[in-house]
Write a structure and sequence with these properties.
The structure is a single chain. The chain has about 290 residues and is an all-alpha fold. It is built from eleven helices and no strands. Helix 6 packs parallel to helix 8 (about 170-200). The chain is globular and about 60 Å long. The termini are far apart. Residues about 60-65 and about 275-285 have low confidence and may be disordered.
Length: about 290
């Protein structure tokens, strides 16, 4: 909407410049607010598990390093499986989002504005999916089950999106793209939370950083791969490959991930009066 289609490159350049100035202004305001008001941690631990983690940090402060934490994560089988499945799911989402414009315009020429709004619909539906996924996790604590369900539904959403593009009704594309965004973006907080469970008491910033790095890496590879498939064979082949080869593989990997809920165990241990006995600390420490 901010950068409408135009034959005049100078007009497009001015529109892009204005959009970038707006983004720069908003992010600058956020930066100032974070510097002034963002706290490192709450005054008191938000949960018994975090209290146990902070106590452990105090005990092992001199022995725990970033490299040691990284080593603990990359030798954690369940986290590596999550790293792969998370990267695949979010990578496919990045590829679809990046190449949404040519896919939509293939079936609906001169609908550039609709292509942008469909992208917006994906994001808004994804925000709703993220909130609902968080509520489900908070109420049930079924981390693996929720992750597997959302992953499988993302695959179903991808199939529906693929085979409804050519209906001739762009409203259908709005609906199916929103459904896809609801589950694929809704998977993001589920993956982060499951990662925190599998890697507790390692710093969540490290595990979430690795998950993001995996998503970016898969996203670059899948975008290039999707683009080649789209150019050579069309959108059906590209979308089917993403849904079949990638998301099915990711669903299988998710199913193979063991539900080792260390944070929940620490929470239960705190309730029992011994919060440090329910998860493994550093190598050599028992």
């Amino acid at each position: 909407m901010l950068v409408p289609n135009s034959e005049d490159l100078e007009t497009v350049g001015k529109d892009l410049q204005m959009m970038f100035y707006m983004v720069a202004g908003l992010t600058s305001i956020l930066l100032v607010l974070m510097v002034l008001f963002f706290q490192d941690r709450p005054p008191t631990p938000p949960s018994a598990a975090q209290q146990a983690s902070q106590r452990l940090e105090g005990i092992e402060a001199e022995q725990v390093s970033f490299m040691q934490s990284l080593k603990n994560l990359i030798t954690n089988r369940n986290f590596i499986l999550l790293l792969l499945s998370y990267g695949i799911n979010v990578g496919v989402f990045y590829a679809i989002s990046t190449l949404l414009n040519p896919v939509v315009l293939k079936y609906y020429p001169n609908h550039e504005v609709d292509a942008g709004r469909i992208g917006l619909s994906i994001v808004v539906a994804g925000m709703l999916g993220s909130v609902i996924s968080g509520i489900v996790l908070d109420k049930t604590h079924k981390f693996k089950e929720t992750t597997l369900a959302v992953y499988a539904l993302s695959m179903v959403g991808m199939w529906i999106f693929t085979f409804t593009l050519d209906t001739g009704h762009i409203a259908v594309v709005y609906l199916t793209a929103s459904l896809l965004g609801f589950f694929m973006t809704g998977y993001l907080p589920v993956g982060f939370e499951f990662g925190a469970e599998l890697t507790f008491p390692e710093p969540e910033g490290t595990s979430s950083g690795l998950l993001n790095a995996s998503a970016q890496t898969f996203g670059i590879c899948f975008t290039l791969f999707y683009s080649e498939l789209f150019t050579a064979f069309g959108d059906n082949a590209a979308n089917t490959t993403m849904a079949t080869m990638m998301l099915i593989v990711g669903t299988i990997i998710t199913a193979a991930t063991r539900s080792d809920l260390r944070r929940q165990n620490a929470q239960a241990g705190s309730a029992a009066g011994n919060p440090l006995t329910h998860y493994t600390t550093l190598p050599g420490k028992h």
